[in-house]
């Protein structure tokens, strides 16, 4: 009985990745991977920025808005179910992490193109063991809210770890927090002297 609301909330929370982010990423993937493999840094950088902006606009922001609107949307979906308040609560906890997790598709593509399977496997194994251990511990305490937070945190940490690794091994990959510097440099280059 405790897992039913969690299942419904996790189903709704995966909408940003499954239905909004993945089709966009699959469209861009062949182009981005080809640029990375051919070492076409500027083209790869442009595709990385385009995909990041597209995923932010099409998955992250709508996912966060969907999470905020869960108290309005879930009752329409569950139509008077006694579980709708708890499903809304769980969705609100899961949605920020899963939405942010959509951005993990970008560095994952670069790591695949660079054949850095060891890093992908290590990140996956460490985080999977961590989240499953945490989930088992919280399940023993019947703490479903804690499980929701653990999975949300899993998506955030995985995304950050992938971005950091991709930035380490690929010079075309933008360094985290370098957006402002990149924009400032381009403006300086474009401004009349």
What this model shows, in words?
The protein is mainly alpha-helical and 193 residues long. It has nine helices and no strands. The N and C termini lie far apart (68 Å).
Would you kindly provide a brief summary of this structure?
With 193 residues, the chain is mainly alpha-helical. The protein is built from 9 helices and no strands.
* Helical stretch tally: 9
From the spread of the alpha carbons, the general shape counts as globular
For the terminal residues, how far apart are their CA atoms?
A: 68 Å
Structural class: mainly alpha
Percentage of residues in DSSP E strands: under 5%
Poorly predicted runs are 177-184
| Strand and helix order | HHHHHHHHH
- The gyration radius over C-alpha positions equals 19 Å
What's the rounded overall pLDDT mean? 87
Helix content: over 70%
DSSP summary, beta strand count: 0
């Amino acid at each position: 009985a405790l897992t039913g609301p969690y299942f419904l909330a996790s189903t709704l929370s995966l909408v940003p990745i499954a239905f909004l982010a993945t089709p966009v990423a699959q469209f861009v993937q062949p182009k981005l991977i080809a640029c990375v493999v051919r070492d076409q840094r500027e083209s790869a950088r442009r595709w990385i920025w385009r995909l990041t902006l597209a995923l932010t606009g099409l998955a992250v922001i709508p996912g966060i808005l969907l999470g905020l609107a869960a108290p309005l949307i879930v009752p329409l979906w569950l139509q008077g179910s006694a579980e709708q308040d708890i499903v809304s609560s769980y969705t609100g906890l899961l949605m920020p992490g899963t939405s942010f997790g959509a951005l993990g598709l970008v560095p994952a593509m670069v790591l695949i193109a660079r054949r850095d399977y060891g890093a992908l496997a290590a990140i996956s194994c460490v985080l999977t063991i961590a989240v499953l251990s945490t989930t088992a511990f919280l399940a023993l305490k019947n703490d479903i809210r804690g499980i929701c937070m653990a999975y949300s945190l899993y998506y955030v940490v995985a995304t950050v770890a992938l971005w950091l690794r991709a930035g380490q091994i690929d010079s075309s990959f933008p360094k985290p927090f370098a957006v402002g510097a990149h924009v400032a440099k381009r403006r300086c280059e474009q401004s009349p002297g």
